[in-house]
Amino acid sequence: MGNIEDRLQRGIAFKVEGRYEEAATELLAAVESDGASCEAHRQLGLVYVFTGLFDESIEELKKAVGLNPDNLDCRNDLAMTYAMLGMYDEAKAEFTTVLEMDPANEVAKREMVYF
Length: 115
Description:
The chain is mainly α. The chain is built from seven helices and no strands.
Protein backbone atom coordinates (compact mmCIF):
# COMPACT_ATOMS: atom_id res chain seq x y z
CA MET A 1 0.00 0.00 0.00
CA GLY A 2 3.01 2.30 0.22
CA ASN A 3 5.00 3.97 2.90
CA ILE A 4 3.83 6.68 5.26
CA GLU A 5 4.93 9.53 2.98
CA ASP A 6 2.98 8.04 0.05
CA ARG A 7 -0.10 7.59 2.21
CA LEU A 8 0.24 11.09 3.61
CA GLN A 9 0.50 12.61 0.13
CA ARG A 10 -2.46 10.56 -1.16
CA GLY A 11 -4.49 11.57 1.89
CA ILE A 12 -3.71 15.25 1.35
CA ALA A 13 -4.58 14.95 -2.35
CA PHE A 14 -7.92 13.30 -1.53
CA LYS A 15 -8.62 16.02 1.07
CA VAL A 16 -7.94 18.77 -1.47
CA GLU A 17 -10.32 17.04 -3.90
CA GLY A 18 -13.03 16.85 -1.23
CA ARG A 19 -12.81 13.05 -1.12
CA TYR A 20 -12.81 12.97 2.67
CA GLU A 21 -13.59 9.30 3.25
CA GLU A 22 -10.65 8.24 1.10
CA ALA A 23 -8.48 10.93 2.69
CA ALA A 24 -9.33 9.66 6.17
CA THR A 25 -8.49 6.08 5.17
CA GLU A 26 -5.05 7.07 3.87
CA LEU A 27 -4.30 9.39 6.77
CA LEU A 28 -5.41 6.85 9.39
CA ALA A 29 -3.06 4.33 7.78
CA ALA A 30 -0.25 6.91 7.92
CA VAL A 31 -0.94 7.60 11.60
CA GLU A 32 -1.10 3.88 12.39
CA SER A 33 2.24 3.23 10.68
CA ASP A 34 3.92 6.24 12.28
CA GLY A 35 2.14 7.68 15.29
CA ALA A 36 4.87 10.31 15.62
CA SER A 37 4.03 12.00 12.32
CA CYS A 38 2.88 15.49 13.23
CA GLU A 39 1.70 16.18 9.68
CA ALA A 40 -0.34 12.96 9.47
CA HIS A 41 -2.18 13.84 12.69
CA ARG A 42 -2.67 17.43 11.48
CA GLN A 43 -4.11 16.40 8.13
CA LEU A 44 -6.36 13.77 9.74
CA GLY A 45 -7.59 16.44 12.17
CA LEU A 46 -8.45 18.73 9.27
CA VAL A 47 -10.34 15.98 7.47
CA TYR A 48 -12.29 15.30 10.65
CA VAL A 49 -13.25 18.99 10.89
CA PHE A 50 -14.54 18.93 7.31
CA THR A 51 -16.65 15.83 8.03
CA GLY A 52 -18.12 17.03 11.33
CA LEU A 53 -16.07 14.80 13.65
CA PHE A 54 -15.18 17.71 15.89
CA ASP A 55 -14.03 15.87 19.02
CA GLU A 56 -11.80 13.64 16.90
CA SER A 57 -10.51 16.69 15.06
CA ILE A 58 -9.47 18.46 18.27
CA GLU A 59 -7.84 15.24 19.50
CA GLU A 60 -5.78 14.81 16.32
CA LEU A 61 -4.76 18.47 16.15
CA LYS A 62 -3.73 18.41 19.83
CA LYS A 63 -1.63 15.30 19.10
CA ALA A 64 0.01 17.13 16.20
CA VAL A 65 0.85 20.11 18.42
CA GLY A 66 2.12 17.77 21.12
CA LEU A 67 4.42 16.04 18.63
CA ASN A 68 5.78 19.32 17.27
CA PRO A 69 5.01 22.28 19.55
CA ASP A 70 6.98 24.62 17.27
CA ASN A 71 4.78 23.90 14.23
CA LEU A 72 2.77 27.10 13.87
CA ASP A 73 0.51 25.66 11.15
CA CYS A 74 -0.64 22.97 13.58
CA ARG A 75 -1.21 25.54 16.31
CA ASN A 76 -3.15 27.85 13.99
CA ASP A 77 -5.29 24.94 12.74
CA LEU A 78 -6.03 23.91 16.32
CA ALA A 79 -6.86 27.50 17.29
CA MET A 80 -9.16 28.00 14.29
CA THR A 81 -10.93 24.73 15.06
CA TYR A 82 -11.41 25.83 18.67
CA ALA A 83 -12.83 29.14 17.45
CA MET A 84 -15.17 27.44 14.99
CA LEU A 85 -16.51 25.28 17.81
CA GLY A 86 -17.07 28.25 20.12
CA MET A 87 -14.12 27.34 22.37
CA TYR A 88 -12.93 30.94 22.41
CA ASP A 89 -10.68 30.83 25.48
CA GLU A 90 -8.78 27.87 24.03
CA ALA A 91 -8.57 29.55 20.61
CA LYS A 92 -7.27 32.80 22.07
CA ALA A 93 -4.68 30.96 24.15
CA GLU A 94 -3.42 29.06 21.11
CA PHE A 95 -3.27 32.17 18.91
CA THR A 96 -1.48 34.00 21.74
CA THR A 97 1.13 31.23 21.85
CA VAL A 98 1.60 31.48 18.08
CA LEU A 99 2.14 35.24 18.33
CA GLU A 100 4.61 34.80 21.19
CA MET A 101 6.56 32.42 18.95
CA ASP A 102 6.13 34.50 15.78
CA PRO A 103 4.83 38.05 16.34
CA ALA A 104 4.47 38.53 12.57
CA ASN A 105 2.31 35.44 12.02
CA GLU A 106 -0.38 36.67 9.63
CA VAL A 107 -2.96 33.97 10.43
CA ALA A 108 -2.81 34.53 14.17
CA LYS A 109 -2.74 38.33 13.82
CA ARG A 110 -5.80 38.26 11.56
CA GLU A 111 -7.72 35.89 13.85
CA MET A 112 -6.85 37.64 17.13
CA VAL A 113 -8.90 40.64 15.99
CA TYR A 114 -11.99 38.60 16.92
CA PHE A 115 -10.84 38.24 20.52
